[in-house]
UniProtKB/TrEMBL annotation:
Function of the protein: Monothiol glutaredoxin involved in the biogenesis of iron-sulfur clusters.
Organism: Candidatus Blochmannia vicinus (nom. nud.)
Stated family: Belongs to the glutaredoxin family. Monothiol subfamily.
Residues where glutathione binds: 22, 59, 71, 84-85
Binding site for [2Fe-2S] cluster: 30
One function term, GO molecular function aspect: disulfide oxidoreductase activity
Glutaredoxin domain: residues covered: 17-81
Signal sequence region: none
Stored Gene3D superfamilies: Glutaredoxin
Protein name: Glutaredoxin
Gene: grxD
InterPro entries named in the record: Glutaredoxin (IPR002109), GRX_PICOT-like (IPR033658), Monothiol_GRX (IPR014434), Monothiol_GRX-rel (IPR004480), Thioredoxin-like_sf (IPR036249)
Keyword Metal-binding belongs to the record: yes
Sorted UniProt keywords: 2Fe-2S, Iron, Iron-sulfur, Metal-binding, Redox-active center
Length: 109
């Protein structure tokens, strides 16, 4: 578990946007992951993702690390944003666009 936590910390530290999901953005394996990836793709062309169905060590460790029990999980600049419902709500209110526009400027994405 400690090794998985270290992997998670490094992924979050080394990638501005991280989506932990079931499947891949172009081949999601659940509806929530699909919606999260679709919404995120509106604002950012490419982002780092981890398929938790393949990386079972991360699937087991991430809920404890993040204190968030479900997938997908969106992390931006080292901070947990939330799951599919939060991502969709932030999209509807415009908050997600504002957040991603700011990080795009800061990180030249």
């Amino acid at each position: 578990m400690n090794n998985a936590i270290e992997k998670i910390k490094n992924q979050i530290k080394n990638n501005t946007v991280v989506l932990y999901m079931k499947g891949a953005p172009d081949d999601p394996k659940c509806g929530f992951s699909s919606k999260a990836a679709q919404v995120l793709s509106i604002y950012i062309r490419s982002f780092f993702y981890v398929d938790v169905l393949i990386h079972t060590d991360i699937r087991c460790a991430l809920p404890t690390f993040s204190n968030w029990p479900t997938f997908p999980q969106l992390w931006i600049e080292g901070k947990l944003i939330g799951g599919a419902d939060i991502i969709i709500n932030m999209h509807r209110t415009g908050e997600l666009k504002v957040l991603i526009d700011k990080i795009k400027l800061r990180n030249n994405l």
